[in-house]
Amino acid sequence: MRERTIASHFARAALEGARRQGHECSPLLQRLGIAPQWLDEPRARLAPEQFTQLLQGLWLELNDEYLGFGQGRCRRGTFAMMSHALIHCPTLEKALNRGLLFYSLFPDAPRLRLSREGDCARLSLDASNLWDPDHFLSECLLVVWHRLGSWLIGQRIRLLEASFGYPRPEHASEYDLLFPCPLTFDATATSLLFSSRYLGMPLQQDERTLKQFLGRAPADLLARPDDGDSLSSQLRRLLSRDATRWPDLEAVAQHLHISPQTLRRHLREEGTSFQELKDQLRRDIAIYHLGRSERSLQQIAEQLGFSEPSAFHRAFKKWTGLTPGAYRAQEL
């Protein structure tokens, strides 16, 4: 089980546009089982399904795919119509350019531009006409276009760099879910860089697959993490294969045919550690099972390798700010 949970920051940021417009969000949060005071806890996490439902609910209630962050409203269905406009293009480059041209027809729309830089391509965003203090919509737009492009050609577009025209935020450690590549903050522009070889690839999708895709897009594109190519992502996949047994660092290093010292160094360069990765995975598995009623707290604690339920309680509260019982009570 590799389900990645979503930091409460993104839920709080998503709600800001609606609140700016005076929209009362409490009924929606109540329907989704999200306690407003819980969102104020910086360590709190949401299941991906919850986050998807939150975005879909906001889109529906606001009738605005820009969630209140734009100068004008982007009515529901705009993304779908844009997708229908590009689905018959022969290559990814033609499809992206047609999609960007579609949005350029709306005067209040944020401007995205696709350009070539030698062997690379850059997707740049001009968000100057957005009210977006947390850069939530800006980051969403980059993620959606990256993952839309990947879906169109049937393979993940490997990012070479993500640049942001603002300082590194406090929640930057969460960016590996969104942009699994080197990050640059305080850049001259907000953009994504990738190999231009993808632009010539033919589209693998059609009207039939598009219909299924649009059933949950673009919200599902944001809630679904990108596994990425980093060592951290590789380790998470490895540990997820059998979450009932928790190998130590030495065993994992042996499996990867590198020394424990090399493994520690590479993880340190990626800003994490083996213990932190294990804790993140255990946290996400715990949240997954706590949102369901099949297993008791003791069974969950045992699966995660805790010898005593009290140790699980302490660890979970450290991870999320809530006890497992309190988290389950507001979920079920």
TrEMBL record:
PANTHER family: HTH-TYPE TRANSCRIPTIONAL REGULATOR GADX (PTHR47894), HTH-TYPE TRANSCRIPTIONAL REGULATOR VQSM (PTHR47894:SF1)
Keywords per UniProt: DNA-binding, Transcription, Transcription regulation
Protein name listed in UniProt: Transcriptional regulator, AraC family
GO CC annotation terms, alphabetical: cytosol
SUPFAM superfamilies listed in its UniProt record: Homeodomain-like
Transmembrane segments: none
One Pfam match: HTH_18
Keyword Transcription regulation recorded: yes
InterPro entries: AraC-type_N, Homeodomain-like_sf, HTH_AraC, Tscrpt_reg_AraC-type_HTH
Domain HTH araC/xylS-type: 233-330
PROSITE patterns, per database record: HTH_ARAC_FAMILY_2
Gene Ontology molecular function: DNA-binding transcription factor activity; transcription cis-regulatory region binding
